[in-house]
Design a protein that fits this description.
Largest sheet of chain A: 2 strands, antiparallel
Order of helices and strands of chain B: HEHEHEHEEHEHEHEHEHEHHHHEEE
Order of helices and strands of chain A: HHHHHHHEEEHHHHEHHHH
Number of helices of chain A: 15
Radius of gyration of chain B: 23 Å
Shape of chain B: elongated
CATH superfamily of the largest domain in chain B: Response regulator
Strand content of chain A: under 5%
Structural class of chain B: alpha/beta
Strand content of chain B: 15-25%
Number of domains of chain B: 2
Distance between the termini of chain B: 72 Å
Number of strands of chain A: 4
Largest sheet of chain B: 7 strands, mixed
Oligomer: heterodimer
Structural class of chain A: mainly alpha
CATH topology of the largest domain in chain B: Rossmann fold
Shape of chain A: globular
C-alpha cells in the first residue's frame, strides 16, 4: 500500500506526473473527454465547449495572477483582441482557422507586452485598475476603428473549418477545443515546472527577494503578461468561432471579474484549480437556471430571477470568505485525510 | 403470413413516415411550444421583463380562447442577460431541450445577430419586435421577420413632426449621439430631416457610449444657441441631457427615439423630463383610446400581479402586437402547422392590423422588414404618462 509520495531526485520533483495513480487518472479523464460528445446532447456539448474555451483563457490568467501574483482585470480586453483578430482575419480576409488561432494569440500577446510595461512599476490594486482601463481602451478602439472592426455592428465569423474539414456542429468543434485545452494545460504545467515557472512563483512570493536571488523580475513579469495574453487571445478566437459573431457587448468588464473569481474559487496558482473553477462558476449558473426554472415554471416571477443572481453572488462570496484556497484546497484537505487516516497528519 | 407481415410493416412505416413528415418541431396534437430570448436580469431587463410579461399575457389569453386551432401555446423563456454569447446558448437550448417551433422574443440587436446563423440554419420562424437594425433584414433571412422602423426612419419622422406640425423650421438644430451604430442610426434620421427641410444644423456632438456627464456638451450647445436637440442616447443619456439643459436654463425642444418613451427616463430627468418628444411606433400604455392598448391593459390586469404591472412599458405593447402577428400566421395555417407554412403566411401579410398597436404590417417575397408608421409622443412628467401628439406618419 502506498503511504505517500516521496521525491528522491530533482527530476522526480519536477516530473509532470508524480505517481502512477495520477497517470491512470489522467488517461481515464482523457478517454472520458474523448467519448463525452457521443453521450452528451448538442446543447450540453455546446455548454461544455463554452466551458473549455473559458478554461483556456482562465489558465492563462492563472499564470499571471495565480502563479506570478500580478492582478489583472484586463482579460476581457485581451479576449476582445483575440476574438476580433480571428473575426477580422477570417471574415474579411478569408484566412483559415489554423492561421487565425495563433495570429489571435500573438496579437493579444503583443498587447500583453504593452500592458505589461506598467506592471514593472505597479502592484496590487494599482495594477488591477491599469489593466481594467485597458479593457475600456480596447472597447473604444474597437468602436472607433470602424474601417477594420466594423464598429458597434460586430462581425459574423464563418463556420469553423480546419484543413478543409468543416467543424460546423458543436460536437465536431468540441474536439478542436479539447485539443487546444489539452495543449493549454500541458503548456501551463510545463511552464510551472520550469525555470520560468519558479521565477514566476518567486516574484509572487516577494519580488524584491526574487531580484536579490538573481531573477530578472522585469523580464519575467513581461513574460507572464505575454504568455497569459496569448492564452486569452486564443480563447477569444475560439469564442468568436463558437458564437460565430463578435461585438463589444461580448467583452464586458464582468468577464474579467468572473475570470478572477474562477481562479479564486478553483484555487490560485493551480492549473487544475483554474479548470475546476471554470466548471464550478459556469456550471453553478446553469444548475441555478435549471433548478429555478423547474421550480418557478417557464417565466417565473421577477423575484425568482433576482434570487438567482443573489444565490450566485452569495456562493462566490462565501467561497472567498471561508475557503480562500478554493476547491483545490478542499480537495487537498480531503485527500490528506484519506491518505493519513487514522492519523491526523 | 409472410405477406401479412410485409403488409403490416409497410403500412406501419408509411404511417410513421406520414406522421413524421407532418409533425413540425415543437408542435404536438395539443400544444405549440414557442421560445423567447429576453434580457430578464441586469439593467436591460427594463426591456426584457416588459416584453416577456406581454408574451405571458398573450399566452394566457390565447389559451383561454381555446388555443390556436385547438392547440395550447406554451412559451419557453430564456434570460440572456443581454450578452450575445448567452443568447446563442439560450437558443441552442430551446431548440434541443425544449424543441421550440418558433422564436417570438429575440432580445437586442447584437444578441439577435449572434442567433441569426442558427435561426437561418435550422429555418426557425422568428419575429423581432425589440430592436430593429438593418443588419437583421439586409440581406433578408428566409425565416426572420422584423417589425418596426429603424431608428433612422423613426427620427426622420419625428423631425417631420417638429417642422410640419410645430413649425420649428427656423430654429437652431443640434444632435448629441453616441459613438456606436445606434447613435449613427439616430444621426442618419436627423441628417435626413435637416436635408429635407433645409434646417440650420449648428452642432453635432458625438459622445462616448456609457458617458455619464454631458456638462461640456450642453455648454457647447448653449454657446451655439441650440433651440432643438435630437438625442441619440439609449436611456439614461436622454435624462442627463435634459437635466443639463435645464441646469443651463436652456429653452430647448427635445426629441428622442423610442428609447426615450420610458418612464425611467422621465423619472431620472425629474421636472426637466416634462414636455420632451419621443418618436415611436407603438402608442403609450396610457393611450386607452387605442383599442389594442385598451385590450392589452385589460388582459394585463387580469393575468399579471401588481408588481408585474409596474414592469410594463412600450416593449410590452411591441411584444403583444408581435404575438398577435404570429398568432394570425399560425391560425391561418390551420391544423397542419409547419414552419414553412408560418413563414409563407407571414410573408403574405399585407396591411395586417394590430388594433392600433403597430401601423399596418406588410411583408412580401424577399421583404422581411415591415417599417410600420411612426407617431410622436410627449412626456407628462407629473403623472408619468405620455400623450400621443401626432397622427401616424408613414416612414420613408
Amino acid at each position: 500500500m502506498r503511504t505517500g509520495v516521496f521525491e528522491e531526485s530533482y527530476s522526480e520533483l519536477i516530473s509532470l506526473y508524480r505517481n502512477p495513480t495520477q497517470t491512470y487518472w489522467t488517461v481515464a479523464l482523457v478517454l472520458a473527454a474523448l467519448v463525452a460528445p457521443l453521450l452528451l446532447t448538442n446543447h450540453l456539448t455546446s455548454l461544455v465547449n463554452g466551458m473549455m474555451i473559458a478554461a483556456v483563457g482562465v489558465i492563462g490568467l492563472n499564470l499571471l495572477t495565480g502563479t506570478t501574483g500580478l492582478i489583472s482585470f484586463g482579460q476581457a480586453g485581451f479576449l476582445a483582441v483575440g476574438g476580433y483578430t480571428a473575426a477580422v482575419l477570417s471574415a474579411d480576409y478569408g484566412m483559415p482557422l489554423w492561421l487565425c488561432l495563433p495570429a489571435s494569440g500573438l496579437m493579444a500577446a503583443a498587447f500583453g507586452l504593452i500592458v505589461g510595461i506598467p506592471s514593472l512599476r505597479l502592484k496590487g490594486l494599482y495594477l488591477a485598475i491599469t489593466t481594467m482601463a485597458f479593457t475600456i481602451i480596447i472597447t473604444h478602439i474597437i468602436l472607433s476603428a470602424e474601417s477594420i472592426t466594423h464598429g458597434s455592428s460586430g462581425i459574423s465569423t464563418p463556420k469553423p473549418a480546419i484543413f478543409g474539414v468543416e467543424l460546423a456542429t458543436d460536437k465536431s468543434f468540441y474536439y478542436l477545443i479539447l485539443a487546444i485545452l489539452t495543449l493549454a494545460i500541458l503548456g501551463s504545467a510545463n511552464i510551472k515546472r520550469s525555470r520560468i515557472g519558479r521565477a514566476f512563483l518567486a516574484i509572487r512570493e516577494q519580488d524584491i527577494a526574487a531580484r536579490v536571488m538573481g531573477v530578472p523580475v522585469a523580464r519575467y513579469k513581461l513574460y507572464a503578461f505575454v504568455v497569459s495574453s496569448f492564452y486569452v487571445g486564443v480563447a477569444g478566437a475560439l469564442m468568436a468561432y463558437h458564437i460565430r459573431f463578435v461585438n463589444v457587448d461580448s467583452f464586458s468588464l464582468v468577464i474579467s471579474i468572473e475570470a478572477v473569481s474562477m481562479i479564486i474559487v478553483g484555487g490560485l496558482g493551480s492549473t487544475a484549480g483554474a479548470v475546476i473553477g471554470v466548471v464550478f462558476v459556469l456550471g453553478l449558473a446553469e444548475v441555478l437556471n435549471y433548478v429555478i426554472g423547474s421550480m418557478g415554471g417557464t417565466l417565473g416571477s421577477v423575484s425568482v430571477l433576482e434570487l438567482k443572481g443573489f444565490i450566485y453572488g452569495l456562493t462566490i462570496v462565501l467561497f472567498l470568505r471561508f475557503e480562500p484556497e478554493g476547491l483545490m484546497g478542499i480537495y487537498r484537505e480531503y485527500k490528506n485525510r484519506w491518505v493519513n487516516w487514522p492519523f491526523r497528519y | 403470413m409472410n405477406w401479412f407481415l410485409k403488409g403490416t410493416l409497410t403500412a406501419t412505416l408509411l404511417t410513421m413516415g406520414g406522421v413524421g413528415a407532418m409533425a413540425a418541431p415543437g408542435v404536438t396534437e395539443d400544444k405549440i411550444v414557442l421560445g423567447a430570448v429576453d434580457p430578464l436580469t441586469g439593467p436591460p431587463s427594463l426591456l426584457g421583463k416588459a416584453h416577456s410579461l406581454a408574451l405571458k399575457v398573450w399566452q394566457e389569453d390565447v389559451n383561454a380562447r381555446g388555443g390556436i386551432n385547438g392547440r395550447k401555446v406554451e412559451i419557453v423563456f430564456e434570460d440572456d442577460g443581454y450578452v450575445p454569447a448567452r443568447s446563442l446558448q439560450s437558443l441552442k437550448k430551446m431548440v434541443e431541450v425544449d424543441d421550440i417551433f418558433a422564436l417570438i422574443g429575440t432580445s437586442g440587436s447584437s444578441q439577435l445577430a449572434a442567433m441569426m446563423p442558427l435561426i437561418d440554419e435550422l429555418g426557425i420562424p422568428a419575429l423581432n419586435n425589440m430592436a430593429v437594425n438593418s443588419h437583421h433584414f439586409n440581406p433578408p433571412l428566409e425565416t426572420l421577420f422584423v417589425v418596426g422602423p429603424t431608428y433612422c426612419q423613426e427620427i426622420a419622422a419625428g423631425m417631420t413632426y417638429l417642422v410640419e406640425e410645430l413649425g420649428l423650421k427656423d430654429e437652431k438644430y443640434a444632435i448629441a449621439f453616441q459613438d456606436d451604430e445606434f447613435g449613427d442610426d439616430v444621426r442618419c434620421g436627423y441628417l435626413a430631416g435637416v436635408e429635407k427641410y433645409g434646417l440650420d444644423n449648428v452642432l453635432e456632438l458625438e459622445f462616448k457610449r456609457g458617458q455619464k456627464d454631458f456638462s461640456a456638451e450642453m455648454l457647447k450647445a448653449r454657446a451655439a444657441g441650440v433651440t432643438v436637440l435630437v438625442s441619440g442616447g439609449v436611456v439614461a443619456e436622454h435624462s442627463t441631457l435634459l437635466k443639463e439643459a435645464a441646469k443651463n436654463r436652456m429653452d430647448i425642444t427635445f426629441l428622442g427615439a423610442h428609447s426615450a418613451h420610458l418612464t425611467p427616463v422621465q423619472a431620472l430627468a425629474g421636472s426637466a423630463g416634462d414636455g420632451y418628444y419621443a418618436a415611436d411606433y407603438v402608442p403609450a400604455l396610457n393611450s386607452l383610446e387605442v383599442p389594442g392598448v385598451a385590450r392589452f391593459m385589460d388582459l394585463a390586469n387580469k393575468y399579471l400581479s401588481e408588481s408585474e404591472m409596474d414592469s410594463l412599458n412600450r416593449y410590452a405593447l411591441a411584444g403583444y402586437a408581435g404575438a398577435m402577428i404570429f398568432e394570425h400566421a399560425m391560425t391561418e395555417c390551420g391544423k397542419d402547422l409547419t414552419r414553412a407554412c408560418v413563414v409563407k403566411k407571414m410573408e403574405g401579410l399585407d396591411g395586417f392590423e394590430t388594433d392600433g398597436l403597430f401601423g399596418p404590417v406588410t411583408y412580401g417575397d424577399g421583404v422581411r422588414h415591415a417599417p410600420t408608421a411612426v407617431m410622436v409622443l410627449q412626456s407628462n412628467a407629473e403623472d408619468k404618462t405620455f400623450s400621443i401628439v401626432s397622427e401616424r406618419m408613414e416612414v420613408e
